[in-house]
């Protein structure tokens, strides 16, 4: 009888209809596949049962988080090779139905069942959050979702994010190693402050303030009076400690508060950095309207938000299974155009849109490097499964940004008064000299 690796390789290639781009090593020590390729290590038969009972991305994610699957070699290369065979296959339900009618396809599935062993579905890893997607984005459900992602432990995030403690795209002057993550995050906060034209004494509302980095920057370097809001108790405690250490308690207030409960406007400026992805499409107009109401006439909003590419049929959009179950429960991405439209419907005048997509790929790669450099401690702090979740989602996201599958944009919008005076200069941005043809 052939070894397990050769058998599995043949089955998978028949199911995929293409050669397997990575090498496989199975639980019996056998290997098959391209000799120079990264190695997908199938550590036990349970990994196959996870795939059989939850085919596709979620089954793979469960096997990865549980440690049933690992990769030897460059993680980015392996994910890039697998993406073309699995995640980026443009197959619809009709294609799958045709496959299931194919006798050879059904034969391959039966052989996979035989190789996987007794057909009992393994329980999902404890890190998985699964609940019906109904009643989304209530104040209670949003707080629960935020807690799942951000209340992992501040010590764990210190490993991943580094001293800046900024959990959003940095703004790099040049690819590493010419620029450090800390300097790039400082430059991003400075960019936000410049776009908002922050001045001493102005009131800034920082929506989704994280661990307080933007609030501290605005108060310390621009003299602003800042209110930062978050739904994470751990973030708030950490931010307050940092603010006290900086001697800024008279200028910065951190609240555990939903954006819908903020009533003490008007503010001169609002920053929302990496928060709007949690709002959800059904609530986005409400979110934009709340921020518009909280701004004084002439006030500016800086909305920093990840965007997905638009689909031909927007009604068919589905949240990524892995991200929803393990990373950002109830999170949703919207196309840039939809975001701009809703901001305008809320009353904003959109004045500037800047894509910084490549910057996020650089940032994510640095976060992955930080995690892997202190893996043992990170796994002890958050648990091995949680550490594997963060490693996979950040590495896969870096590739998605590099391949233009998702983007990130900074939108400057103004609550323009009836006079029409936006308060922006005629040339709000200074572009560099043209490059070579």
Automatic annotation (TrEMBL):
<dbReference type="Pfam" id="PF02353">
    <property type="entry name" value="CMAS"/>
</dbReference>
<dbReference type="GO" id="GO:0032259">
    <property type="term" value="P:methylation"/>
</dbReference>
<keyword id="KW-0808">Transferase</keyword>
<keyword id="KW-0489">Methyltransferase</keyword>
<dbReference type="InterPro" id="IPR050723">
    <property type="entry name" value="CFA/CMAS"/>
</dbReference>
<keyword id="KW-0949">S-adenosyl-L-methionine</keyword>
<comment type="similarity">
    <text>Belongs to the CFA/CMAS family.</text>
</comment>
<keyword id="KW-0443">Lipid metabolism</keyword>
<dbReference type="InterPro" id="IPR029063">
    <property type="entry name" value="SAM-dependent_MTases_sf"/>
</dbReference>
<dbReference type="GO" id="GO:0008168">
    <property type="term" value="F:methyltransferase activity"/>
</dbReference>
<dbReference type="InterPro" id="IPR003333">
    <property type="entry name" value="CMAS"/>
</dbReference>
<protein>
    <submittedName>
        <fullName>Cyclopropane-fatty-acyl-phospholipid synthase family protein</fullName>
        <ecNumber>2.1.1.-</ecNumber>
    </submittedName>
</protein>
<feature type="compositionally biased region" description="Basic residues">
    <location>
        <begin position="131"/>
        <end position="142"/>
    </location>
</feature>
<feature type="region of interest" description="Disordered">
    <location>
        <begin position="119"/>
        <end position="142"/>
    </location>
</feature>
<dbReference type="InterPro" id="IPR020803">
    <property type="entry name" value="MeTfrase_dom"/>
</dbReference>
<feature type="domain" description="Polyketide synthase-like methyltransferase">
    <location>
        <begin position="156"/>
        <end position="394"/>
    </location>
</feature>
């Amino acid at each position: 009888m052939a070894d397990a690796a050769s058998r599995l390789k043949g089955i998978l290639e028949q199911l995929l209809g293409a050669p397997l781009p990575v090498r496989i090593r199975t639980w019996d020590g056998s290997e098959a596949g391209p000799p120079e390729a990264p190695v997908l290590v199938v550590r036990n038969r349970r990994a196959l049962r996870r795939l059989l009972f939850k085919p596709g991305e979620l089954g793979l994610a469960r096997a990865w988080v549980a440690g049933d699957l690992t990769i030897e070699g460059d993680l980015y290369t392996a994910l890039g090779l697998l993406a073309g065979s699995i995640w980026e296959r443009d197959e619809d339900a009709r294609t799958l139905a045709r496959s299931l009618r194919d006798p050879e396809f059904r034969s391959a599935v039966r052989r996979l069942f035989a190789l996987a062993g007794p057909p009992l579905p393994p329980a999902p890893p404890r890190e998985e959050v699964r609940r019906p997607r109904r009643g989304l984005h209530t104040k209670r459900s949003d707080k629960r979702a935020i807690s799942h992602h951000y209340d992992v432990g501040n010590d764990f995030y210190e490993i991943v994010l580094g001293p800046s403690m900024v959990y959003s795209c940095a703004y790099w002057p040049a690819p590493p190693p010419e620029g450090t993550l800390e300097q790039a995050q400082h430059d991003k906060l400075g960019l936000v402050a410049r776009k908002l034209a922050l001045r001493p004494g102005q009131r800034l509302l920082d929506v989704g303030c994280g661990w307080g980095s933007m609030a501290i920057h605005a108060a310390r370097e621009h003299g602003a009076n800042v209110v930062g809001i978050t739904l994470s108790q751990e973030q708030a405690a950490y931010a307050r400690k940092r603010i006290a250490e900086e001697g800024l308690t008279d200028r910065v207030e951190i609240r555990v508060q939903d954006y819908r409960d903020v009533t003490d406007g008007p503010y001169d400026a609002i920053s929302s950095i990496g928060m709007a992805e949690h709002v959800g499409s059904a609530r986005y107009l409400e979110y934009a309207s709340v921020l518009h109401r909280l701004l004084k006439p002439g006030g500016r909003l800086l909305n920093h938000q990840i965007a997905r590419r638009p689909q031909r049929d927007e009604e068919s959009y589905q949240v990524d299974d892995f991200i929803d179950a393990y990373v950002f429960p109830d999170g949703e991405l919207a196309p840039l155009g939809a975001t701009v439209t809703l901001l305008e419907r809320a009353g904003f005048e959109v004045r500037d849109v800047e894509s910084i997509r490549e910057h996020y790929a650089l940032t994510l790669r640095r976060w992955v490097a930080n995690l892997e450099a202190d893996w043992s401690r990170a796994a002890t702090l958050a648990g091995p499964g949680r550490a594997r979740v963060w490693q996979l989602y950040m590495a896969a996201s870096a590739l998605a940004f590099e391949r233009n599958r998702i983007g990130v944009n900074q939108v400057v919008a103004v609550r323009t008064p009836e006079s029409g005076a936006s308060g922006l200069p005629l040339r709000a941005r200074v572009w560099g000299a043209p490059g070579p043809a």
